[in-house]
Amino acid sequence: AGLFPQIERLELEVLASNHAALALYKKMGFVIEGTKRKAFKQLDGRMEDSIVMSLLREELSEDLWQIKNIG
């Protein structure tokens, strides 16, 4: 059951313009749940959308929920 058996869902929010992060999260199995329109104000005053993504325990293999000893 891993180190965190109580965790059933991971959720994140990323700027819509961050295409590299979106691609990485999709590759990891995260699913887009929706868009928050004009959710963040940039330093130049522009408003930018954010994307909400999630990953459910059953969508990920059990070994990836484990914390590996690195080093």
Question: What does the secondary structure layout of this molecule look like, with pairings?
Answer:
Blueprint: E1 9-15, H1 19-27, E2 31-41, E3 47-56
Antiparallel strand pairs: 1-3, 2-3
Describe this protein's structure:
This protein is 13% helix and 39% strand. It is mainly beta and 71 residues long. A three-stranded antiparallel β-sheet has the order 1-3-2, covered by helices on one side. The chain is elongated. It starts with 8 loop residues before the first strand and ends in a 15-residue tail after the last strand. Residues 67-71 have low confidence and may be disordered.
What are the salient characteristics of this protein?
71 residues, mainly beta, 3 strands, 3-stranded antiparallel beta sheet, disordered C terminus
Name the beta content range. 35-45%
Number of helices: 1
Kindly report how far apart the N and C termini lie. Answer: 23 Å
Q: Spans with pLDDT under 50 lasting ≥5 residues?
A: 67-71
Question: Helix-strand pattern, N to C?
Answer: EHEE
* Outline type: elongated
Compute the number of strand runs: 3
Strand order of the largest sheet: 1-3-2
Reported for the largest beta sheet, the result is:
3 strands, antiparallel
Query: Which value, in Å, is the CA radius of gyration?
Result: 15 Å
- SS-based structural class? mainly beta
The helix content, as a percent range, equals 10-25%
**Average pLDDT across residues?**
85
